[in-house]
Automatic annotation (TrEMBL):
PANTHER family: PHOSPHATIDYLINOSITOL-GLYCAN BIOSYNTHESIS CLASS W PROTEIN
GO biological process: GPI anchor biosynthetic process; protein localization to plasma membrane
Annotated membrane topology: Multi-pass membrane protein
Keywords associated with the record: Membrane, Transmembrane, Transmembrane helix
Chief place of localization: membrane
Protein's recorded name: Phosphatidylinositol-glycan biosynthesis class W protein
InterPro entries, A to Z: PIGW/GWT1
Cellular localisation: Membrane
Amino acid sequence: MIEIVALSTIVPVLMLLPHSLGLPTSAGAKKSWAAYLVMIVSYLCIVIVPILLFLTILAGWTYEFAILLLVPLLFSCKRSREERPNSLRQSISSYRVAMMVVTCLCILAVDFNIFPRRYAKTETYGSSLMDLGVGSFVLANALVSREARNLATPNWKTAITSTSPLIILGIGRLISTTVVNYQVHVGEYGVHWNFFFTLAAVAILTSVIRIPSKYCGVLGSLILFGYQVWLSLGLRSYLLSDKRGPGIISQNKEGIFSVVGYWGMYLVGVQLGSYLFFGCQTTPSRSSRWTRNRLYILSIFFWILTVVLDKHVERVSRRTCNLPYVTAVIAQNLQVLALLMLSDFIPGYKSSALVEAINQNLLATFLLANLLTGLVNMLMDTLNASSVVSLVVLIGYAFVLCITIGLTHFRGIRLKFW
């Protein structure tokens, strides 16, 4: 967990450091493709590639660089005053992009030997970096959801229609992995279930069972507490057992039952989003300062709660989405968001061109990353690649992914799936 705290410091600090040093990363009005491409490549070289290095060959220096990078940023912030009334929206966008960038880098890097095994998903218990991925997607969606913004929730028919792309993507992933005989760990979600089905199930549940945002936190907490008790009374043994019956539920028991935990997490996230971002504040600047202070407090609270639950209740388990896993996901995500809100203290801060591009096409970025990952795995033996070859491939992958998304944004294309 301490290493995740360090990594969750490095990533947002790297995203802010170029702005604090006055390096150009924003394309402004996007006057020409050449100028825009320079901005994209600049951000790639000074932010994305260093993040990739910390996930691979520099993984042994995580603690040292977390301190080394944070200190100059804090000094830079100390010399400045808050003059950014619209910073909250930019910070949320940067947070969502940070989550997506780390996810996209990890899904290919994990196939190479230069990626530390301790960052890969755990078998049953543990809190690795990649374990937090699916939970972070669910929480990020909850924090800025319609429910958090107190907007009308669509009925269940509309919800099924709007989540149909996720269901189609889930079916497409199932068919494609079966056809190409792509290695899938059955113990993660089950035989047929996958990440897209989990997102769709959470969205449908939220629409079918409509709950005002002010009650979401209470209900979500009750669901998570009840689910944890259920796990302790025997559900855990059933979910973690290698035995599977012929029925569809037994075949996909991990994916189906963990939806309860993810839904509870989503509801708590809705309450947090409503409380932190969409409450009634008198002025935008006060809102930003008010939110930032509470993000620090809540992040520390949830980290402490995670440690207590992990030690005295049950170890963190992504496979079952138990209560300690949920608190770990919330703690890590709020920490990243809190650090990104230090952008308030950077004079003239502007969101970078690449951050804007990825934020406009989050799902498209993730889908392209999955396609490129599959392509790389079909073209080469990643596990036996040398460190140099692995690093070259990963950097090339990052460049292709980001430049493609940048070009899509430059052309004004927004791939909205629902």
